[in-house]
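FORM 7B - TANDEM STRUCTURE REPORT

SECTION 1: FIRST PROTEIN
SEQUENCE AND TOKENS:
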Amino acid sequence: MLPLSDHNPSRTTPFINYLLIAANIFMFFWELSLGPAIERDLFLVSFVPARFWAAPFYLPNLIRILISMFLHGGWLHLGGNMLYLWIFGDNIEDRLGHFKYVIFYLLCGLIATMTHAVMNAESRLPSIGASGAIAGVLGAYILLFPKAQVTTLIPIFVFITIREIPAVLVLGLWFVLQLFVGVASIGPQAANAGGVAVFAHIGGFIAGMLLVVVMGGYRRPRQTTTFDRSM
């Protein structure tokens, strides 16, 4: 299932969400500008679990956590992540407020990265992408807006259909899939096997559910008063 949009209008302009999307796109074009040196240079600036645990308090290793949250491995990786952030991020920013949303997003990304690092401590493969932080956005969304309708593209064998599906089903199935793949991937052979960092998704999703409550997002926003101007 691929979400295309949600029916959950935001009360405020989500300019932080726009800036996050712009930052990810900017960093991707920076990656493209590296040319033949892209693989070498990305390894230098991206998060690598084994390298991190060798010196966890080494400042460059800490900076790499932040940088890696804005790097992507290709157009599909970038496009998929930005689609999810575009659809679901505005409502979380609306509930938390602009400043808290920045903190929320970065904390989700940090927790997601550290979850991946713990579960893949010996991996020497770079871990890049915004999906851990975005998973936190999804976790917050499923808690705050479970009944929101999401326009979803659903492939059924050779057919494709578009349906309105509650967010709790769309995002719940996504999380269950991450859990299934994560459990299946546990083992010594996973240390240097490439693929999707599912434990970053799992850690980010759970972090988002917890943080949005701690940061006050679960409280309903104050309603604005409307006056009858016909009198």
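SECTION 2: SECOND PROTEIN
SEQUENCE AND TOKENS:
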Amino acid sequence: MCSMKITEYHSLQALNTLGVAVTARYFCRLMTLGGLKTVLSWQQAHPDSPVLFLGGGSNILFLDDYAGLVAKVDLRERTVLGEDAEAVYVRAGAGENWHDFVRWTVTQGYAGLENLSLIPGTVGAAPMQNIGAYGVELQDCVHEVLAVDWRTTELRTFSRAECEFAYRDSYFKSVEPGRWLMTADTFRLPLKPE
């Protein structure tokens, strides 16, 4: 069992972009996949309490204190997996700040994500909405998405096609909302700007 700590009465003011001063009755930081088992155990012990997985806090408006468990997704990673003749493959953890990750890819000399800079949120939330700007959408550069069924802890890799991307939509948002928690995304970024 993971030793992730669940605390009580945690302020969420710094964890939502509107800065709403609310409190979570229970709170934890999900920094490893092993922590998900702690969240599952907690939910089994508190079946009437909701669980909210929180990314960057940019697409949520808290109207009141949260009565259940808020699990802040803090899975961090930036790894170059390899390259082929045309592209480099980069994996980023779901808890990475999206804009910071885009800036990092640009400083590494990797093209493809620069039009998606300044979009608030995290890497893990990006596939849910199929974020886009200036003629580029996430689906143009995502290679695969690693997600976990948070109810069973099954880890699954979704290919780009399996993500069923559409305009500001995805499999995760429309087909099975609330089931899959993104843990990392792998991007295929061209070696030469197009």
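SECTION 3: OBSERVATIONS ON SECOND PROTEIN
The mean pLDDT is 94.
The chain has two domains: 7-73, 78-190.

SECTION 4: SIGNATURE
Preparer initials: ____
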